[in-house]
């Protein structure tokens, strides 16, 4: 049996990856990312741009199964769609890989930093809607974290680029990130159930206002509750986050409804006002464009009028002579 | 396929053995008896002992398991990952054997097309969730491990949390080496929960040689004594026979 801790290898730009079974070819453009779980490349295939992932045999196959399961979840667009799965017989031996839809956009953390905290609640609603559909289909997302979430669009939609942690309901969550794992915070088990995902979803909001994260102390969930209360960006929906951290929601829909209600009340309006400058940048630019367009219109109008006036003068002059 | 039990030795150490039998040979002995040996090497800085790491890799290789070297703060995550990966690896081995039997040739998972492989993987996954697991944890308590022991304790509690979220049953046992008087000292008899080790860990006094080989040898025998202990598992056929 093999030692699994060494499967990192590299493919350069311009390399062509041939599939052994389905005979597809992919031209490598650049490396998108590399992690413990594998390496992802941006490639060009017969179907256009896509993301191609190499990893160990075990995780590749497991992830593919999850992506296939995602495809069956009606209406959920959280994960990327699976396009191809194959083996590449390279010089270094057989490399299993799969090809998925390339999702473009900033990570959730980058998006919030650029556009302001008023987006936290809105995107959390989207996340909960997607989680609800996934849970209904009998799956738990597992490894929810801002680095795994991409905001594509506009119109802005939350997408997930790493589905490796997705687990069948009732089993044990195998892949997780400590900061978002309720086991780590001693707030519950690692059993795959909706409340596990909802804890992680609440921690995503916490991470967005504490980008540096923080280490755990001995007080368990209480530490998290205090941290939530300390940030005014979260004030509007703090009670919802706290309930999720304490495992009081048994379904994503329940949490979503209460979050929606919380976002509709007064404090969020103040938040929205405060965050507007970030959004104004865009309206500023479009306004400028509109002004330019108006000026152009004016110019054509005067030109037409001038020509018409000259013509009238010409006709008058002709008549007079 | 009937419900099987996966047997593992998990060795946590920070360096090279310096006493008794060759641990690599002892790991091979464990493998012969269907016990996988996984090793986690814990380091505190860059100036790590190269010879120690070589040994760590070799023990895992001959013990059919997985080796991983980590900084103390990543230990929790690593311990549960290594345990799981090794389980999957063992199960995949079993499934590969079955495939060979069914297809009467040298077919392994790698030789199957991706779609079929996915289905086989689903079976492996299912087995990993439901199989019974026995892990004997061996912790190096030589002098250099002193400041790492609190982290080891955390990591083991975390392992218990992860494994107990599975559907299958778990049994853990914990030994440290060197022991107070012997080469190995048993701290915890086979138990489904590791929580009870919290108090024991604070009473440990690290120091002495590193008898990794003898510790593995003794660990193997602990799997056997467990089996002969009457009535340990109520489901045990042997027990029913003898008690009738």
Can you characterise this structure?
The complex is a heterodimer of chains A (321) and B (244). Chain A has two domains: 16-100, Phosphorylase Kinase, domain 1 (2-Layer Sandwich); 108-270, Transferase(Phosphotransferase) domain 1 (Transferase(Phosphotransferase), domain 1). In chain A, 45% of the residues lie in helices and 18% in strands. Chain A contains eight helices and ten strands. The longest helix of chain A is centred in the last third of the chain and has 55 residues, at 266-320. The two termini of chain B are 29 Å apart. Chain B has helices at 23-32, 50-62, 75-103, 114-130, 149-163, 197-202, 212-228, 237-243; strands at residues 5-13, 35-43, 67-71, 132-140, 170-177, 185-191. Chain B has 244 residues and is an alpha/beta fold. In chain B, helix 1 (23-32) links the parallel strand 1 and strand 2 (35-43). The chains are: A alpha+beta (321), B alpha/beta (244). Chains A and B meet through helix 1, strand 5 and strand 6 of A and helix 2, helix 3, helix 4 and helix 5 of B. Chain A: Residues 26-269 form the Protein kinase domain. Chain A: InterPro entries: Atg1-like (IPR045269), Kinase-like_dom_sf (IPR011009), Prot_kinase_dom (IPR000719).
Attribute tags:
heterodimer; A: about 325 residues; alpha+beta; Phosphorylase Kinase, domain 1; Transferase(Phosphotransferase), domain 1; B: about 240 residues; Rossmann fold; about 45% helix; globular; disordered C terminus
The oligomeric state of the chains shown is heterodimer
Percent of residues in beta strands of chain A: 15-25%
CATH fold topology of chain B: Rossmann fold
Q: Structurally, how many domains make up the residues of chain A?
A: 2
What's the number of domains of chain B? 1
Which class best fits the helix and strand makeup of chain B? alpha/beta
Shape descriptor of chain B: globular
Average pLDDT of chain B, to the nearest integer? 80
Number of strands of chain B: 6
Q: Biggest interface and its residues per chain?
A: A-B, 30 and 35 residues
Helix content of chain A: 40-55%
Query: What is the alpha-carbon Rg of chain B in Å?
Result: 18 Å
Major sheet characteristics of chain A: 6 strands, antiparallel
Based on the structure given, which CATH architecture of the largest domain in chain A is correct? Answer: Orthogonal Bundle
First-last Cα distance of chain A: 107 Å
Protein name (chain B): VWA domain-containing protein
InterPro entries (chain B): VWF_A, vWFA_dom_sf
Domain VWFA (chain B): 1-91
Pfam family, one (chain B): VWA
């Amino acid at each position: 049996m093999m030692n699994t801790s060494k499967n990192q290898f590299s493919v350069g730009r311009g390399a062509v990856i041939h599939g052994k079974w389905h005979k597809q070819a992919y031209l490598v453009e650049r490396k998108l990312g590399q992690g413990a779980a594998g390496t992802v490349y941006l490639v060009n295939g017969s179907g256009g741009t896509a993301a191609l992932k190499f990893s160990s045999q075990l995780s590749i196959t497991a992830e593919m199964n999850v992506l296939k399961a995602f495809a069956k979840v009606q209406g959920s667009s959280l994960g990327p769609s699976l396009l191809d799965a194959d083996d590449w017989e390279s010089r270094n031996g057989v490399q299993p890989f799969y090809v998925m839809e390339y999702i473009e956009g900033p990570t959730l953390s980058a998006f919030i930093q650029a556009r302001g905290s008023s987006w936290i609640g809105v995107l959390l609603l989207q996340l909960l809607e997607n989680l609800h559909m996934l849970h209904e289909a009998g799956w738990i997302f597992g490894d929810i974290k801002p680095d795994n979430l991409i905001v594509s669009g506009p119109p802005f939609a939350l997408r997930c680029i790493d589905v490796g942690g997705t687990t069948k309901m009732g089993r044990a969550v195998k892949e997780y990130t400590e900061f978002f794992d309720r086991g780590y915070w001693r707030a519950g088990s690692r059993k795959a159930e909706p409340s596990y995902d909802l804890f992680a979803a609440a921690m995503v909001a916490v991470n967005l206002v504490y980008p540096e994260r923080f280490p755990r102390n001995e007080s368990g969930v209480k530490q998290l509750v205090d941290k939530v209360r300390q940030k005014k960006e979260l004030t509007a929906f703090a009670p919802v986050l706290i309930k999720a951290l304490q495992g009081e929601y048994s379904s994503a829909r329940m949490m979503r409804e209460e979050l929606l209600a919380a976002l509709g009340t007064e404090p969020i309006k103040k938040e929205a006002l405060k965050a507007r400058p970030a959004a104004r940048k865009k309206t500023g630019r479009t306004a400028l464009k509109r002004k330019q367009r108006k000026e152009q219109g004016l110019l054509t109008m005067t030109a037409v009028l001038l020509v018409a006036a000259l013509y009238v003068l010409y006709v008058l002059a002709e008549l007079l002579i | 396929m009937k419900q099987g039990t996966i047997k593992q030795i998990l060795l946590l150490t920070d360096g090279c053995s310096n006493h008794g039998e060759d641990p690599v040979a002892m790991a091979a002995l464990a493998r012969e008896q269907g016990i996988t040996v996984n090793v986690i090497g814990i380091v505190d800085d860059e100036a790590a002992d190269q010879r120690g790491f070589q040994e760590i890799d070799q023990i895992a290789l001959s013990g059919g398991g997985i080796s991983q070297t980590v900084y103390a703060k990543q230990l929790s995550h690593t311990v549960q990952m290594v345990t799981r990966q090794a389980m999957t690896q063992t199960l995949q081995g079993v499934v590969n054997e079955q495939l060979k039997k069914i297809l009467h040739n040298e077919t392994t998972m790698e030789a199957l097309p991706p779609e079929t492989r996915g289905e086989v993987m689903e079976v492996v996954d299912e087995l990993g969730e439901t199989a019974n697991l026995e892990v004997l944890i061996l912790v190096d308590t030589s002098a250099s491990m002193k400041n790492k022991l609190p982290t080891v304790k955390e990591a083991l509690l975390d392992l218990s949390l992860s494994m107990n979220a599975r559907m299958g049953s778990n049994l853990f046992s914990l030994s440290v080496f060197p022991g107070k008087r012997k080469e190995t000292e048993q701290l915890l008899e086979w138990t489904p929960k590791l929580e009870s080790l919290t108090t024991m860990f604070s009473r440990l006094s690290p120091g002495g040689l590193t008898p990794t080989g003898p510790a593995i040898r003794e660990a193997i025998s602990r799997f056997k004594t467990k089996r002969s202990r009457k009535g340990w598992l109520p489901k045990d056929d042997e027990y029913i026979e003898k008690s009738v």
